[in-house]
UniProtKB/TrEMBL annotation:
UniProt keyword list: Metal-binding, NAD, Zinc
Region span, Disordered: 229-280
Domain (Deacetylase sirtuin-type) ranges: 10-441
Residues annotated as binding Zn(2+): 198, 203, 314, 317
Gene Ontology molecular function, alphabetical: metal ion binding
Active-site feature positions: 190 (proton acceptor)
Keyword match tRNA-binding: no
Designated name of the protein: Deacetylase sirtuin-type domain-containing protein
UniProt signal peptide: none
Acidic residues: compositionally biased ranges: 235-246
Basic and acidic residues: compositionally biased ranges: 247-266
Length: 446
C-alpha cells in the first residue's frame, strides 16, 4: 500500500508536469539538453554501471579509470574491449520512443506562427536568418582547420540546413540523436562513438565516420578485444603476438555477422542495472542507423581491416585509431569545429533575437530549456542549462528550465533564478510520456 507521502509526492510531480507541458506548448524556442540518464532509458549502461562489470572490478577500475586514452598505448586489448563493446551496444540498441516525442515538439516549435511588422512569420525563420548573417560575418567554416576537423558536410548557405527554434545539446556519446534530429541541430559536446580519429598527434588528419558494417569482437567475460580474428588457427593464436581469437567459435561468428540477439541477462532484467555488453531487457533492437548523419567526408581515414581485423587504424599513417570522444585526461581529442561554430552561432542568434524583441517590440521571447538525465558527476550540461536561463532573462526574455532527473531535479542554492525552474524527480522517458499526454490535451483545447 502506498503511503500518504507517496500520494503527496505524486500530486506535486503531476503539478510540475502540467507546468512543464504548458511551458513547452507556449515556448517560442526549445533547447533540449540531455545527459546519460536519457541513454539509460534505452537500456544502455551509464557511468555507475561500468563499475559493476566484473572484469573491471577485478582490475579495480571504475568509469573514470577505464575512460582514458592512455589505455590505447598501455593495453589496447582493454581499450578496444571497452570502446568496442560500447560501439556494439550503441549500434545494436534502438533509441527509445521518447526521442520521437521530442521530435514532435521540435516540429511544433519550428512551425509556430508569429505576427510582426512585416506580417506573419515564425521565430524559427527569424533565428535562421540571424544565424546565416553570423555565418557570413564570421565565415567560421572557411579555414583549413575547420574543413579538416569535421566528419561530414553541412551546407551552411542552405537555409534548410540551419537550425530554427530547436537545438539539441548532449553529452551522450551514443549518437542516437542522429536517428531522430538533423545533424545541423545537434551539438554532442563530448563527441560520439560513430566518429573516429588518429591516435598519433603528429598525423594531420581530422575526424572520420566508422564504417556502417563494422562490429568489434569482444570477449565479454574479460572485456578484452583481440587484435584480429585468426581464420586459420583453432587454438586462438597465430604464433605472432597472441592477440588473436578463433573465427570458428560461434560467439565470434555472431559478433562479426551481427546475429547476436542478446538484449539482457534475462527477460526479467528490467529493473536491474545495464552492463556494457548486456543491454537491459527493456532495450529494443535497432531498426535503422544514423539516418540523419550525412555521409563521411574522409573515406580514407578508417583503414579497411578486412573481415579479420579488430583494431582500427588510420588510413593515412597506419597508427591505431581511437573514438573522437573526449575522455578523462585527454589532450588529443579532435573537436568538430564546424559543429561547435553552428551551436555558437545559433545560441547567439537566439540571444540577439530575445534582446531585440524585448527592446523594440516589448515582447518577452519564451525560451524553454528541457534538461533530461543530466547528472552531477560531469556537470557540463547542467551548467549550460543554468547559464542559458541567466542569459535569456538578462536580455529581457522569459526562460523556463524543465529539469527531469530522479536523483537531482533541483538547482543549487546559489541559483538565483529559482522561479524559472520546474523540477521533476523522475526518469526521463517516464516523465516525457506523461508530459506529452498533457501536451496533447492542451493542443486539442487550443
Amino acid at each position: 500500500m502506498r503511503t500518504k507521502v507517496d500520494d503527496g509526492d505524486d500530486a506535486r510531480r503531476s503539478k510540475q508536469e502540467e507546468r512543464a507541458a504548458r511551458a513547452l506548448k507556449e515556448a517560442d524556442v526549445l533547447l533540449l539538453v540531455t545527459g546519460a540518464g536519457f541513454s539509460a532509458d534505452s537500456g544502455l549502461a551509464v557511468y555507475n554501471d561500468i563499475g559493476k562489470v566484473e572484469a573491471y572490478q577485478l582490475r579495480n577500475l571504475d568509469y573514470a579509470d577505464i575512460c582514458q586514452p592512455r589505455w590505447l598505448k598501455k593495453d589496447p586489448e582493454l581499450f578496444y574491449g571497452f570502446w568496442g563493446q560500447c560501439f556494439n551496444d550503441y549500434r545494436n540498441t534502438k533509441p527509445h520512443d521518447g526521442y520521437q516525442i521530442l521530435r514532435n515538439w521540435r516540429d511544433d516549435k519550428n512551425l509556430m506562427q508569429h505576427q510582426n511588422d512585416h506580417g506573419t512569420t515564425t521565430v524559427a525563420d527569424e533565428i535562421r536568418t540571424r544565424t546565416l548573417h553570423k555565418y557570413h560575418l564570421r565565415r567560421p567554416f572557411d579555414d583549413d582547420a575547420a574543413r579538416l576537423l569535421t566528419p561530414y558536410k553541412v551546407d551552411h548557405e542552405d537555409i534548410n540546413q540551419i537550425a530554427g527554434s530547436f537545438f539539441a545539446f548532449t553529452s551522450n556519446v551514443d549518437a542516437h540523436h542522429y536517428d531522430v534530429f538533423e545533424a545541423h541541430e545537434i551539438h554532442d559536446c563530448h563527441g560520439n562513438i560513430e566518429l573516429w580519429q588518429c591516435s598519433n598527434r603528429g598525423c594531420e588528419t581530422g575526424i572520420w565516420r566508422a564504417p556502417i558494417d563494422h562490429k568489434f569482437v569482444v570477449d565479454k567475460e574479460w572485456m578484452l578485444a583481440p587484435k584480429h580474428v585468426d581464420a586459420n588457427a583453432n587454438d586462438g593464436d597465430d604464433g605472432n603476438d597472441g592477440n588473436d581469437v578463433d573465427i570458428d567459435s560461434k560467439e565470434v561468428k555472431e559478433e562479426k555477422d551481427g546475429s547476436i540477439t542478446d538484449k539482457g541477462d534475462s527477460d526479467n532484467d528490467n529493473d536491474g542495472p545495464a552492463k556494457v555488453g548486456h543491454i537491459k531487457a527493456t532495450g529494443e533492437k535497432r531498426s535503422n542507423l544514423l539516418q540523419y548523419m550525412p555521409p563521411g567526408l574522409d573515406q580514407k581515414g578508417w583503414k579497411d581491416m578486412g573481415p579479420l581485423g579488430n583494431w582500427p587504424r588510420c588510413g593515412h599513417c597506419e597508427s591505431l585509431a581511437r573514438p573522437a570522444i573526449l575522455m578523462f585526461g585527454d589532450f588529443g581529442f579532435h573537436y568538430d569545429l564546424p559543429q561547435h561554430e553552428r551551436w555558437d552561432a545559433w545560441k547567439e542568434a537566439v540571444m540577439d533575437l530575445t534582446k531585440s524583441k524585448s527592446e523594440k517590440e516589448g515582447i518577452q521571447l519564451k525560451v524553454c530549456i528541457l534538461e533530461i538525465g543530466c547528472g552531477i558527476n560531469v556537470s557540463t550540461c547542467r551548467d549550460l542549462s543554468e547559464t542559458t536561463v541567466h542569459h535569456v532573462a538578462r536580455r529581457g526574455g522569459e526562460p523556463t528550465l524543465i529539469r527531469i532527473n530522479p536523483d537531482h531535479p533541483g538547482a543549487p542554492k546559489e541559483f538565483v533564478a529559482a522561479d524559472h525552474i520546474i523540477s521533476i524527480p523522475s526518469r526521463g522517458l517516464e516523465a516525457i510520456r506523461r508530459i506529452d499526454e498533457i501536451y496533447k490535451t492542451l493542443n486539442q483545447e487550443s
